[in-house]
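Hey, can you fold this?
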Amino acid sequence: MRTPTRIILVLLLCFVGLIGLAGFSIYYFLDKYSYNDLYKRLETRARISAAQRFEEGTDAEVLRMTQETFLEKLPEQREYFIPLPPDADLQALSRAHEVPAELLRVIRNDGRGTAKRGLTFYAGVLQRSGPGDHAVIVSAHNYYASHHLHYLRNLLTLLMVLTTLISAAFFLYFSRRVFDPITRVTDELRRISTENMHLRLAETRADPEITALITTLNGLLDRMETAFETQKNFISNASHEFGTPLTSLIGEAEVALAKERTSAEYQETLRGMLQQADRLDKITRSLLFLARTGYGEHRITFNIVRMDEVVWSVKVLMDDLHPGHKLHVDFSLLPENPRKLKVNGNMDLLQLAVGNIVNNAIKYGAGKPVQVSVAAGNQEVIILVKDEGIGIPEADLPFIFDPFFRASNTAYFEGFGIGLPLTRNILKLHKGRIQVSSQPGTGTTVQVNLPTLE
């Protein structure tokens, strides 16, 4: 049984049970009250009839008038005046007057009593007088019980049926409102596979719990996509990039062993092999680091980092790597509150990410000025790196974050195409974003957004 159906049945059974218990209680207590009330009314009539008939000095006409004026005649009302001598045969009197023998016994012993036979109710009192003891009994049908309670029972039954139907409809609507978002999330998750890992669940603000669930699942999908892409790219790129240096190493060795060579030729061959081995080592290190940054932040220590300090440390590093560069750092947009520059991150990784962007700007800037600006909003730190270099062709822009991809106009520049993919992975770990805009021959602008401390 599906969970929504099970919940509907449980709620419906509980609700109907409570309504049924309430209806039964109402009917039961009213039924008991109708019995007690009728017995009291019958006993009152019996006492008036006894006083009217047996008590001397009583104005019988006044009692009769009072009874007729203030006491309505009950349905099938009858009066019995039954002599009760000490040796009376109660069974014979019961048969003769058609009253319960047990009622006569109770009246004789207790002075008053009540009884019920079918729909007829009896109440009587013992009247002690000169002629002897008499049982004065009044009987009547319980019209309230036979009609009003019957009507109430039918009404309660009808109300229970209607309440059950209305409650079932309400619980069905309620369960759909509750489970439809979960069903939608489940259906959307089923559509996401290894072929379309970029898809995400549509967020909604209608339900905070569902919103939190969707946000959590989207975060999980982000990490899964990064891990999956990293693994896929590592395998495909490793097989592709390792091929060239390995082929060169094998070729150099085969050529060197093909015949006897001079010492200078062997040294030249070894230098070529060393160069290819060095390239293979760099590619291996880059691939491993790229893979390591793609598997989430659980292996990385995060601390409070000021991004203006990160940018300045990158500036110092570029001074050593590229003497004579034209890098300018603009701090004129720094906020007055230094807290707006602080992020939760790893200093070394952030230096590497910003360093890759600035290094590319200097390398592809063709000796032209490069400007790095730092600014901050209420919730983000913004780093802008702008150069006036060769730019990136429009057709190549969608692929610049693919590992080992290099733009078509970078053939004369050294590199492996690892920097930007690595930077993107690092920024993903820090919940940041990177945007690149460029025009060939005009330059490239890279914007980095990082969330500040909450």
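Oh, and this one too while you're at it.
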Amino acid sequence: MLVPVRCFTCGKLIGDKFEEFKAKVQSGEDPAKALDDLQVTRYCCRRMMITSVDLIDQVLPYYSQKNPGT
């Protein structure tokens, strides 16, 4: 997954925190508490972490149809 390395709005480094955030949320922790624990306090950075979506699963079927040999 391509996670933004920096927040698009303020430029703060957030890419290094995404894997830990994802693991905490998948284990059942509240996303707001997970972001607080990771010290992501700005609204713009929180938005970047919460709205990151893994698009490869959505794009892959179209890639297979366009390139039938792969």
